[in-house]
């Protein structure tokens, strides 16, 4: 934290970021970030991690935050470079992840001449940022760096984006290095709210506890267990949690189905819906004849209030109701016995559940493997799960990579559909480069299954050539062994249950990056 | 052009787009575009081309426009999907390409509930669009479709982006199909301007003709030839033209070097700088001590005026000066004799120039192969060249693909650096899928050479581990044979001049998609 009197603006910012708690920078620099790259030499406290595409940087920063709880920095190159990071920043925003983006920009005095790489970076950054800042003088660098870092490091601070012109990266800074001071958000308690909900429950009214955010982490789940014997209380988890914990005796929490046709009627079946860290339910896609906001707003209450964790909220409710504490219960673990040899999503998920090591991290994208795995996730070893929160595909492999950087002592397993894997396939290269302990299973079914299902649901004819063609990933078939070799990741192909078992067990027993192509019908 | 009384909004839009001259849609649809996908079945006049990443859609639309001169449609999925298209739309904007983007959106009534995939699409689209339009009722669909199509189809109309909610894609339209009526822009002639410039030239003042836009196409180049014997006139082309034509007897036009240190002094060496379709020169990156706008504005004149082509302008100037017309002159074609076996950027460029078929299209990205090829481009067969206009890397392979769709009778050759190829490597899959006649040469040097050069130029120490690491693509090395196999493209690796000659000649003799990894030191 020594402020060198001759440090550059980039060195000052990096030292201040390090002092504030930032440890990693997922970087894809270009010419306008060269002083920043040079500064990384002088500030080893922030580890630079090179990604060969910006969507890998942002997806990795999201996965990193979800597992570690502190933001990573990203470094991208002007508007077009940052634009490539937007899709996964969208997912990060929906996950409530905090990320600290630094975008290199032309010399501050050069922007107005509109050189070829110039564009309206603010307009691009705003839709995915809680705050956008621009330095255009040493004084504004000091102010914008202090504001943006303090906001990014605050609890639930969200995504903050600093536009940093090249001349200010290189300028000489006399300003001392700072550590962002973050005040804990005070808990806002509405008097009597928990008691009111408890009175409804005690009166036998049909009640839904909809858990989200940290109410899906272990401490809250142990409190949720206390409600298990109440016949009038149902406990469900939000559909796409930023991180949820499963297995090893934790209660199996069903996920809320956000399809309007089912969800609206389901919610109307309760007299009270208590939101514990979950957002008010909204239909994932709009469906004619159903409202956007599902259920009856008059019967919903936000039980988990600002600055208060899900565990404390559930504990208070259970205490008022005088429900006993419970311990983890032994579970009968899923095995992969008697599966036969036919590789299906269900049999593949069984193999994974049977051999998943303790404390693994699952990064799931796409429904093919994730849905059957979710169905048995409670009956495997303890693991954390991170899923696609914002619907922007191309999140799974970058998030797996970022999670592996965040938690190098844990095994990461990607349950990945092939269509979405293509969007940020460059993440394989960073996996190999950083030698992370992550195994990606690619569910190779060579089609956009989710679209095919939706087309069928909407009554479209799937046999017509143009439509069929737009939903197929065959012609040509993707070869994931080739792809993995292209990016330097060791890979195997499994066409039977035995082959998958052999490959997966070996991958779990050894360390390092791997890919397994799971050939599905 | 029959308006079916029961057509959907998407069918009506597609039919109107087809009637207005749109022939191809580079598509990456998701759930909110399903009615649009369904409509493609009913409207075979617009050919759907599936891309496995949105940056491929936009890069292909750019390459398509540059060769065909009419816009393609793109179809992307909400804000995050469109975001992936932005980097290559930035390049398209800088190329002056016209593109017609359709972005699927949630049901119009569902947007305000802010479902997971919702975002501020307008904010994302504006930086790369000349116009952004949103339909939120059948009436506004009619108005926004008419406006956006008319603007996109206008000469130099640029990029126009229509946000189209799912319910309006599916709505029943009674509106008749329309064809956008495009008025030719009237030529704006400032009286006497050409005569004034001619008087300067006739008086022996040192004059630079800086050609850009269509002044780098054959008709204008033949007019430019007429100035060749004037000792006081220099003819130079803009640095990154959207499309330039070369070889087969066309004059060799040197490209303007936009590095401020050289360019500013160079421009000051002229008494008059006449811009013929070129933009006023701006430094590519700002350099301390040099202005953003290079040269002396008082000595510059925009000779090529609104609505007037470069050929007409140069012809008028040459006519006033009574310069004789000239024909193509025979050129001594580059050979690859006496090259030895050592594969370098220069020897590889010589092999390409020696065996390039007539009327090929070169798509060049990255300096490694493009710079030595440019130096000898005049001494090979007639070809068109499309290059990176906006500095957003990941343009070369998608643009090659789009050019091949636009001009299926011409051979496309990509001169591609490895670092930038990674950004949109998914374009290989579309190349294979559409079986386009394109051969991509990957200059495999396993580092970001452009950054290494810039770091050196700025006096950074390249031996320190973090800095060196951020500029290397080794660890692991990319394997382009694996990558090509992954995406279904036939590939070969060349490690000697003989191997490259053999592979390249075979690729030129046969049709279809290929990749050649050119192993460079």
From TrEMBL, chains A, B:
GO molecular function, one term: flavin adenine dinucleotide binding
Gene3D superfamilies, A to Z: 3.40.50.970
Residue intervals of the Thiamine pyrophosphate enzyme N-terminal TPP-binding domain: 8-111
Limits of the Thiamine pyrophosphate enzyme TPP-binding domain: 389-518
Keywords in alphabetical order: Thiamine pyrophosphate
GO biological process: small molecule metabolic process
Family: Belongs to the TPP enzyme family.
Name of the molecule in the record: Acetolactate synthase-1/2/3 large subunit
Organism in which the protein naturally occurs: Pigmentiphaga kullae
Taxonomic placement: Bacteria, Pseudomonadati, Pseudomonadota, Betaproteobacteria, Burkholderiales
